[in-house]
Design a protein that fits this description.
The protein is of the alpha/beta class and 200 residues long. The chain has a single domain (3-199), classed as Glutaredoxin. The chain has eight helices and nine strands. Helix 1 runs antiparallel to helix 4 (79-98) and helix 2 crosses helix 6. This is thioredoxin-dependent peroxiredoxin.
Amino acid sequence: MTLNNALSDVNAQARAGLPPEIFAVLEADRRRAAAGFAEVGDKIEDFTLPGADGTPTALAELVAEGPSVLVFYRGQWCPYCNLTLRTYQQELLPELAKRGATLAAISPQKPDGPAPDLAFPVLSDVGSTVGRSLGLSYPVSDVVREAMKTLGTDLEEVNGSWELVHPAVVVVGQDRVIRYIDVHPDFVTRTEPADILKAL
């Protein structure tokens, strides 16, 4: 089963489990058009972000000995993100190690949020400074905000603001130049591990 097939199953479960009016709001949001993202050839400025345990990690460290795969995700409260990160750990991380590449996940969630059980850095980009520099961040609409609150997710508490990032995978070279970028405004779909390896 591909990652996106598994994510479709999660979405089917959400459709069955959520109130229809809430699911309709979230479905409309995932179909929203977006543009203005960073492109292949753009350079990422060096950054240092805290991990879930407070330990800082810099982009310079991630690309010190090879390319790095940066996975931008919405937060630990997002079931699609959790499945994606677990899949990347299982299917992608061992292959990256063979290629001398690193993997790191980045979200707008505060560093004092729940720490995922992952074997790669999970970094906190509070205020979406890095995400915004790549054109990935966006404000959550009022109608989606109310739907999320109804489901018990208050981004003001977990992220510090009602701002999210589009899920994305960015492959960065040692010169901090983007070699590959794949952005998913539809948050139910994500980049397949095989496509990341092909890009590397």
